[in-house]
Write a structure and sequence with these properties.
With 139 residues, the protein is α/β, with parallel strands linked by helices. It has a single domain, classed as 3-Layer(bba) Sandwich (D-tyrosyl-trna(Tyr) Deacylase, Chain: A), CATH 3.50.80.10. Helix content is 26%, strand content 38%. The protein has helices at 52-69, 89-106; strands at 2-18, 34-45, 73-78, 111-114, 119-127, 134-138. Strands 1, 2, 3, 4, 5 and 6 form a six-stranded mixed β-sheet that branches. Strand 3, helix 2 (89-106) and strand 4 (111-114) form a beta-alpha-beta unit. Helix 1 (52-69) crosses helix 2 (89-106). It is globular and about 35 Å long. The N and C termini lie close together (5 Å).
Length: 139
């Protein structure tokens, strides 16, 4: 699993259109902006060999990033483009769901959202600088 983490002063996304592997989504959520302040935006590449072991390691590493940045919100986006050997969509969704659950368990009070899997999205973000603000985590 490879995670590119960006601390954002502001982050907004808009769901635009489905890919062939898109999850079902309420039509009212299409073209509806979703906004966050002071969050970590995560681009997560799930690889074919990833297991619950990688989920646990990723949650631990992200917990450290949360504590060092002081953010109260995390936004997870599956992003196969970072992987050399991407998992299939079913495995990716399972791992991403596991990461979401594990982060909620490890970090009480942290608001964790997952962007709709398999949908094309537009993003607007204002990334901050700092030692922990921009990280690449490989587990």
């Amino acid at each position: 699993m490879l995670i590119f983490s960006l601390q954002c002063r502001t982050f907004e996304f808009v769901v635009k259109s489905p890919t062939p592997v898109a999850v079902e989504l309420d039509p009212e959520k299409i073209n509806l902006p979703v906004s966050y302040d002071n969050c970590l935006f995560l681009l997560v590449a799930v690889e074919a060999e990833d297991t619950t072991k990688q989920v646990a390691r990723a949650a631990k590493a992200l917990g450290k990033a949360v504590r060092n940045t002081g953010v109260k919100q995390l936004v997870i986006n599956g992003f196969a483009g970072l992987s050399k050997l991407p998992a299939d969509s079913t495995h990716s969704q399972t791992i991403l769901s596991g990461l979401h659950s594990r982060l909620i368990e490890r970090e009480p009070g942290l608001h964790v959202d997952t962007m709709p899997f398999g949908w094309r999205k537009e993003w607007t973000l204002d990334v901050v600088s700092g030692v922990w603000a921009q990280r690449c985590i490989h587990v």
